[in-house]
Amino acid sequence: MTKRSSGLLPQVTFSILFALSLKPRHGYELMQQIEHDSQGKIQLGPGALYGTIKQLREDNFIEEMPFESDNERRRYYRLTRKGLNRLNAELEYFENTVRLAQERRLISNTIGTLRWTS
Amino acid sequence: MDKLNHRFPRYSRLLALYPAGYRKEYSKQMLQILADMLDDPARNKTATWIRTALDFPVSVTKQQLTYTGETMKGTPYYLKQNAMTGVWLVTPFFLFIIIDSLFGKRLEKSVIWHTNVLFAWLVVFPAIAILLNLAALLCWLQSQRRETGKGIWTIMTASRQSWPAISVAVIGFAILVIVFGHDSVHCIGGNPFYELSHRHQTLQCLEQR
């Protein structure tokens, strides 16, 4: 999933890192945040979510927080320094892409959609 | 069994299909997230179940493949090498079946049985595949026995490292059975449901050969 370390992160992986950038979250909070951030375009099932979490933990991009909750089923995850760096690199790429699109007048300087140019 | 296992008995039983390590770490959290989704009044319960049902097989397959891949990392080189060679050796048989089916021929009417060179290859190649993989398997079992002191059956069932070699050997053996029994292939080489539901005719056909 996150094996393509030199390329872009898969969308689900990016969404999880992005959702964890604000604060540590447990699984369901993460799922809700991802749905909110993607305006409902990314809807994960439990298997896809925890499959990606497992991969991110193995890659040391996120970590489980020390056990605090009284419900052992609610494990909280947070970004590691490596995860934050990876997220920043990804955001930098997107920022460059948006800047290029603005320079090419594909989108306006504020927020906008791609315009069809024939 | 705790509360959520009681609440979702089928789903919690299905979670057993995940590899043990993954299950131990995430199965409780997966049950919790399903409960959270279903308890959320903003969510449609049917849509949640559909999403979970669609997600489950994909996720299980992915995790099993990942687990198998991780296991394979520790597999000795000779075991992997011989399995790969074996795969190449049994491939021609399947290529012939594909080519035959492209020309609308069934297995029993394949050109394989009428061309001596092809026939010889199809006997020799799977035989080499079987020998290579059985030899590798025996070497591996011997080394594992020396290292762990466990029995052969325990070693083979406890580790997936032997699976590629066993699979290739079994496929090679199956090909040889078909090749040597090709006179009766047409009795069993058609629609398996038909042949099973018409067992009497199938057995009669086999006896006549």
Structure explained in plain terms:
- The complex is a heterodimer of chains A (118) and B (209).
- Chain A is 48% helix and 8% strand.
- Chain A has one domain (11-103): Orthogonal Bundle (Arc Repressor Mutant, subunit A).
- The mean pLDDT of chain A is 86.
- Chain A is mainly alpha-helical and 118 residues long.
- Chain B folds into two domains: 3-72, no CATH class; 75-208, no CATH class.
- In chain B, 78% of the residues lie in helices and 0% in strands.
- Chain B is built from eleven helices and no strands.
- Chain B has helices spanning 3-7, 9-14, 20-39, 45-73, 77-102, 116-148, 152-158, 163-180, 185-188, 192-197, 199-208.
- The mean pLDDT of chain B is 83.
- Classes of the chains: A mainly alpha (118), B mainly alpha (209).
- At the A-B interface, helix 2 and helix 3 of A face helix 3 and helix 4 of B.
Q: How do the SSEs of chain A run, as a string of H and E?
A: HEHHEEH
Low-confidence spans of chain A: pLDDT under 50, at least 5 residues?
none
Provide the domain count of chain B. 2
Number of helices of chain B: 11
Described by its quaternary structure, the protein is heterodimer
Q: Which architecture of chain A does the CATH hierarchy give at level 2?
A: Orthogonal Bundle
The computed structural class of chain A is mainly alpha
Question: Secondary structure elements and their pairing?
Answer:
The complex is a heterodimer of chains A (118) and B (209).
Chain A (H helix, E strand, L loop, with lengths): L10 H10 L4 E2 H11 L8 H13 L3 E3 L11 E4 L1 H23 L15
Chain B lengths: L2 H5 L1 H6 L5 H20 L5 H29 L3 H26 L13 H33 L3 H7 L4 H18 L4 H4 L3 H6 L1 H10 L1
Task: Identify the notable features of this structure and list them briefly.
heterodimer, A: 118 residues, mainly alpha, 3-stranded antiparallel β-sheet, 48% helix, B: 209 residues, 2 domains, 11 helices, 78% helix
